[in-house]
Amino acid sequence: MATLYIRDVPEPVAESLKERAAEAGMSLSAYVARELADIAARPTNAEIVKRLKARDRSHGPSTAEILEAIEAGRR
């Protein structure tokens, strides 16, 4: 397992993280490791765009149908 050292963390950020860790009943290190794991598990914007571009959109609504639905929602 890797060890990370983070420098120059603003004091308000450090205090907020300490408070959140305490509320979760965790050490600061465990809390931050969990939060970093959550961040790392999320897809990047580039990955999301790639997935969206790969989708088959041939069976979706037409532009006219979308505009009609938007207009109907405004009434």
From TrEMBL:
<dbReference type="GO" id="GO:0006355">
    <property type="term" value="P:regulation of DNA-templated transcription"/>
</dbReference>
<protein>
    <recommendedName>
        <fullName>Antitoxin FitA-like ribbon-helix-helix domain-containing protein</fullName>
    </recommendedName>
</protein>
<feature type="domain" description="Antitoxin FitA-like ribbon-helix-helix">
    <location>
        <begin position="2"/>
        <end position="37"/>
    </location>
</feature>
<dbReference type="Pfam" id="PF22513">
    <property type="entry name" value="FitA-like_RHH"/>
</dbReference>
<dbReference type="InterPro" id="IPR053853">
    <property type="entry name" value="FitA-like_RHH"/>
</dbReference>
<dbReference type="InterPro" id="IPR010985">
    <property type="entry name" value="Ribbon_hlx_hlx"/>
</dbReference>
